[in-house]
Design brief:
Length: about 300
Amino acid sequence: MTPAPPPKRAGIDKGNLAVRVGTALVFAIFFFTLLYLGSNPWAKTLFMGLLAGALLMAMHEFTLMGRKMGFNPSLAAGTLAGWGFLLHFYLLGRDATDPLPLWLVLALSALVIHFGALLTDRDLDKALPSQAITWMGAVYLGMGTGFMVKLFMFDETTLSNTGGRLVLALFLITWIGDTCAYFVGSLLGRHKLAPRVSPKKTWEGVGGNLAGNVLAAFLIRAFVCVQWSVVDALAIGLLLGVAGLMGDLVESMWKRSAGAKDSNMGGISIPGHGGMLDRLDSLVFAAPVFYAYIHFVHGLN
């Protein structure tokens, strides 16, 4: 009996790769310029505004997935609740007295989501899962983007533009890991990681992902966050790599349950990158983990 041939590797889609790279370069120029100027108050406000727009786009895609499954999540209620979380972190970064406490955000979100559904949702048979999806999208996206804002609001006197440096670290470590995973998985991937959830992901890609995360963390240590130790770079690279991978797999599981190839089902597509939810999935998991490390290990509040 002849052994089964090894699975074929996917290979690199050169056409899509060119579009992905072009889009990424345009975005990177604007984004890195904003981070470079991050010590200015207007830059922090603009950054929050950009994340508010990204949250709206991602929430739209999240509700479309819910509706594709036959439920009625609310885009308006989910977006308003998500913006409440985002505003909490922004105001907390500007004023340590916490002018918009988290308990108040939760209470107001409950009013918006549940009272809004009471007035507008006519399909009572699906009220529970519909409101649960709205809540999950608001918390998932609001808290994830909120921690990005929290990182950007840091302003240490010992190192200029601390917030800009930290957000740059978060994005570069996550993105370089994703890029390495794509190339290593496409060229060398043979052993499937989670075929039921994400058929294209392989263990070889995971290895490339973590290697890219650690490499990026050491580059950040050398040129951006020079106060990091070798242990910091290694720990942050691995932590963000694992968190980002989990975020990617979780979103893939949601898409699989909704029967969607990518999160963009009628929303605004990012050329070569799919929907906004596909771009945020790793970051919204990695940002709270990164904040926890910076807070508990380096004592930043």
